[in-house]
Amino acid sequence: MASNTSNSERDRTESNALVDNFGRFHSYLRISLTERCNLRCKYCMPAEGVQLTQKERLLTTAEVLKLASLFVAEGVRKIRLTGGEPTVRKDLTEIVAQLKATNPLLESVGITTNGLMLTRQLVGLQRAGLDAINVSLDTLRAARYEQITRRKGWDRVMAGIDLAIQLGYRPKVNCVLMKGFNEDEICDFVELTRDRNVDVRFIEYMPFTGNRWDTEQMVSYRATLDTIRARYPAFEPLPNGPNDTSKAYRVPGYRGQMGFITSMTEHFCGSCNRLRITADGNLKVCLFGNTEVSLRDALRSPGCSEDDLRCLISAAVKRKKKQHAGAPALSTTITTSTIQTSSPYRTTPLLQQSSRHYASLSHVDVHTGRATMVDVDDKVSTKRVAKAQATVYVGPTIAALIQNNELKKGDVLSISQMAAIVAAKKTADLIPLCHNIPLSSIKVETNLNSSTNEVHILAKVKCDGKTGVEMEALTAVSIAALTVYDMCKAVSHEILIKNIMLVEKTGGKSEFYRKQFGHETSTLETRTMEEREAPEPIKVRPLRTDPIVTQEQFVPMYI
What is the pLDDT of residue 531? Predict the structure, then answer.
């Protein structure tokens, strides 16, 4: 009898309701429990905020549980609860308990969280039956975490990850890599797996409409893999399941493993088995798709039966496209962006001067006298590096305000650092005859010297290309210096920007090293040529093995 029941359930699993026109069976359901979040991540939420849905238009707890049971009956075996931030739901533990109690065929219930509330809630969630945890964490540096999330809490997130390990979970740590922000931490995240049984997964940045980033922020899977293998030559692939979105790797001997979610460069649409229900009850069959079906409205319609819901779901699944719905080809997007950035400057005429011998000018067409970019087609592509510096004298009053972070416009050092990174990427927009170069790394240091009342700025820019990046480095420090001036001018105009200069240029036909350099303490420059070849040691917070306190005074913002 038990065997017959098992076969009956297996037949139901293979029903057509969750099979699309390309033969993909959907056994994984992600349910958003809320639109709200207790962080304000810059790449996730626009600066102007988002319009939240009215409460009465969101799914109730009972509706969430009813839809979950319906999908499980049709063959879903894995449910992940997401947001917003699911831990801001006061009834999260109850929802997990009910899902496990009422759906015996359900194999896994997990959550995706920012980790802020894990030290308070995870023990209760485990008792309720929670099977898996994904933690979104884009940096292993506390100051950078506060910068991107606009909130404090990095220490609490790390404690939550360690608590999950102590409780027997293998948490997945999801990191969205972004150029100019955290690609310098790739190997730091690898090192996190040395002593921790975690699965760190690098996610290619996806340029959704409405955030303030673009495709130029994306760090590709292949580029990330090259960076890791340069430091860990034995980095090896692991077997993957048929529906895995992550390509698994590990460093031999490390407790944890790594993964790559290649949503943009190597999509995994052919094996996609995921469906999504939004907080307001809309069924999305593809993350990139604009088409949604309101299950909430159907649930609340008088006379709507479970069979009607199944037909509605089946029709939506059958409309699922073969691959990313509505997502432009990545190569097309980048190419178009490059053309739009550079083309306006190619035909801008110079002032016509009859006495000028155009043949002597490298950036002017010999026949027409019009501006033209240097042709670098015949040059060899090499690794190019440039460093530049600038100094801003601010005086004792402003220096004290910067040191104590008391200026009305905010944190001068952090904001000027971000301005430098943005400026380096926009050099071709600012200086007409510069090539638009894809940069592989931008590192900027801004330091206050209290004894001289000066802000020291140092930028290091890298690329793999046919022309150098000294203009990008010089633009970075120049804009950083101007940002310091702009943020401090309300206090005094007795501010002096000085010593903007190229410090080092390598990788091209002609290399340059400035013999004397003012930043004796700079971590970007005070290394011998031998030291440059050796990788810097990576420091990662040690795994906590002591009992983690779960009664801290932090109170979640149920906003």
Answer: 44
